[in-house]
Amino acid sequence: MPDRDSDTGSDRSRAAVRRTYEDIGAHFSKTREYAWPEVESFVDESPSCTTALDLGCGNGRHAELLTDVADRVVGLDASRALLTAATERVGDEVALVQGDAVELPLADDCIDLAVYVATLHHLPSRDARRASLDELARVLAPGGRALVSAWSTAHDRFDAEADAESGFDTTVDWTLPRGETVPRFYHVYAPSEFERDVADSDLRLVSVELSSGNCYGVVEPEGKRT
């Protein structure tokens, strides 16, 4: 199990998270070839739409899925290294944008369908995570839906109480080919905490499940129902 963070002097800025993925992005991408089945199911069950967003798109593996159901797909990530990998994978099928999940460079109500997978838990404060959820709600169109995931205390690598009310911050090392280790920040969500953070945002939780050690929530923007 990774050590829980106790070093209050560590750099937990969003810039530090971005630097981490600039350092490991090329190698990280090679280990992320396939789409997650939970995302495949969500996309397969979604109707065709005009514009879809992969928020925290990494190497584009989930943006690639969205091209099957959307006329236009936007992939956004903070890491230029990962966007380079995404370009190699999806070419000009996806509009790739470098940006911050807390301040999306997108217009209000412009997204019909979104996936926000394995990214929320890298934001280094609750305020940043809440702001990011609010931003997702802002860009979702009336009737739009998104799938949001985050690493959970339910994962078997963590020694956590099943009914914990809150999660914890930790770092998990990434080992590069030459043996160098790079720490990656995570906020590991307790399931009830994940539900609370969504409920406290401008999103409405349509459904939630635990799968493969992650919380998955299908959400829609509160107050924008058609």
Protein traits:
alpha/beta; globular; disordered N terminus; 7-stranded mixed sheet; 226 residues; 9 strands; 6 helices
Fold and architecture overview:
- The protein has 226 residues and is an alpha/beta fold.
- Helices cover 29% and strands 31% of the residues.
- The chain is built from 6 helices and 9 strands, in the order ααβαβαββαβββαββ.
- The chain has helices at residues 14-30, 37-44, 61-66, 80-90, 126-139, 191-199; strands at 49-55, 70-77, 95-98, 111-116, 140-151, 168-175, 181-188, 203-211, 214-221.
- The strands form 2 sheets. It has a 7-stranded mixed beta sheet with strand order 3-2-1-4-5-9-8, with helices on both faces. A two-stranded antiparallel ribbon has the order 6-7.
Short description:
Helix 1 (14-30) packs parallel to helix 4.
Number of strands: 9
Mean pLDDT: 90
Please identify the structural class as seen in this structure: alpha/beta
β-strand amount = 25-35%
Based on CA inertia axes, which overall geometry fits? globular
Q: What share of the residues lie within helices?
A: 25-40%
Order of helices and strands: HHEHEHEEHEEEHEE
Characterize the biggest β-sheet: 7 strands, mixed
Distance between the termini: 45 Å
Detail the poorly predicted runs: 1-11
Strand order of the biggest β-sheet:
3-2-1-4-5-9-8
Please, how many helices?
6
